[in-house]
Amino acid sequence: MSKIKYELLHVDKYSKARRGRIHTPHGIIETPVFMPVGTNSTVKGLTNDQIKNIDSEIILSNAFHLFLRPGMEIMKDFEGIHNFMNWNKPLLTDSGGFQVFSLKDRKISEEGVLFRSPLDGSKIMMTPEKSMEIQQTIGSDIAMAFDECVNAKWGYEYMKDSVDRTYRWAKRSFEAHKKENQSLFGIVQGGLFSDLRQRSLEQITSIPFDGFALGGLAVGEKYQESEKVLKEFGDKLPKDKPRYIMGIGSPTMMFLSVENGMDMFDCVLPTRMGRHGTALTWNGKLNLKSAKNKFDHSPIENDCNCYACKNHTRGYINHLLKRDEMLGKTLISIHNLYFNIHLIHKMREAIENDSFLDFKKEFFSNSSYPLQN
User: Fold this and answer.
1) Is residue 34 part of a domain?
2) Residue 127 is part of a domain; what is its CATH number?
């Protein structure tokens, strides 16, 4: 078994959108790709068969949460996450950086981040070396270097120090990573400062990572600010490696990301919206809790081939939601993930035909999704 291999198959003639293929120890990933989030080694409310039936090629799990529970002793006992959750397709773990930095009681030093466990209050020091140890024990196909995920609104001087610290942590992550059949991605930071993004880009890409990510976006900044970073730096990432933008999952942001040369993205949005009764459709968002669905015999979306649409009506799902039945949330989650994944399939076809921008225009003209968030 070897690390990943990336093939660039085609670039759209009229945009930076690219069509590729990633070979991993657990199978092939066609790109661009949307990755459902399985934080605790499960995509909330869905079985593995349900995830596979919506054509998911890879899922994401979280090193920080798995480190806390079930813990590395259990991961070692099961010889990794694929055995633990009985998942035989590719899997990516994030480093836990975002979760660590979202905690209030934490102290950042050159060594790493000292924080208290949200489970029992015990003190934990998370370092690049510790993050690599955790992710290697988990055994994901793709691991992420430990970085500092900062608020995009923080000041220039702190951001500059953070960028340089992320670089030093990236070098330590690379040196500590020894698992031969696991790839490691580096993360470019820099917030909304172009010169710091460029600085981070040059620093991180100087390390021979297997892929590269743009971090520090989708953390509350305006759409125009994300757009500026993506347009300026998306296509500057190495062309012969996978490009990953973290935390992206709305149709608007997926189109923006693909148009600017990104290959991979993940988000909890489809399942979170599903648990709150909102479906994603080709016409726009649909509130299935609304009383107008009570007598509706139609599926969530006509001509949709997901399990929910092939087997159940809006009226039935409305009833499940009103009674707070788990099945209702599961059905909408299945549909929403199917929607995102098959929207990406359509993007792939459009890239291959050099018609990505035409497809984008058609999509937004026929739906209520905002062209800009």
Assistant:
1) yes
2) 3.20.20.105
Three-state secondary structure call for residue 97 = helix
Three-state SS for 220?
coil
Q: Provide the residue range defining the domain that includes 48.
A: 5-268
Residue 241 confidence (pLDDT): 98
Q: Does residue 70 have a cis peptide bond before it, meaning omega lies within 30 degrees of 0?
A: yes
Residue positions annotated with a catalytic role = 94, 266
Q: Return the number of other C-beta atoms located less than 10 Å from residue 368's C-beta.
A: 9
pTM: 0.96
Q: Is 172 left (phi over 0), alpha (psi -120 to 50) or beta?
A: alpha
One-letter identity of residue 177: H
Domain assignment present for residue 249? The answer is: yes
Rounded Cα gap, residues 39 and 43, in angstroms = 7
Here the tokens at position 89 are 């397709």
The token pair at 180 is 């031969």
Number of domains forming the structure of the chain:
1
Q: Is 95 flagged in the annotation as binding? A: yes
Contact, 22 vs 31, CB < 8 A? yes
The residues, ordered by sequence, that sit 6+ positions from 40 with a Cβ below 8 Å of its Cβ are 61, 62, 65, 66, 69
Predicted local confidence at residue 96, as pLDDT: 74
List CB contacts of 138: < 8 A, sequence separation 6 or more.
Answer: 61, 63, 66, 75, 80, 81, 93
Query: What 8-state DSSP symbol labels residue 293?
Result: G
Residue 51: φ, ψ to 5°: -65, -45
Give mean pLDDT in consecutive 10-residue pieces for the chain, a chain of 373 residues: 86 98 98 96 97 97 94 98 98 83 83 90 93 98 93 87 97 97 97 96 98 88 92 97 95 97 97 98 98 98 98 98 98 98 98 98 97 83
Torsion over CA of 223, 57, 131 and 119, rounded to 10 degrees? Answer: 80
Question: Which residues contact residue 49 at a Cβ distance below 8 angstroms, ignoring those fewer than 6 apart?
Answer: none
Q: Is 96 annotated as a binding residue?
A: yes
Determine, yes or no, domain membership for 371: no
Q: What is the pLDDT of residue 153?
A: 75
Is 94 part of any known ligand binding site? yes
- 26 carries a ligand binding annotation: no
- pLDDT score recorded for residue 2: 59
Pairing mode, strands 123-126 and 211-214: unpaired
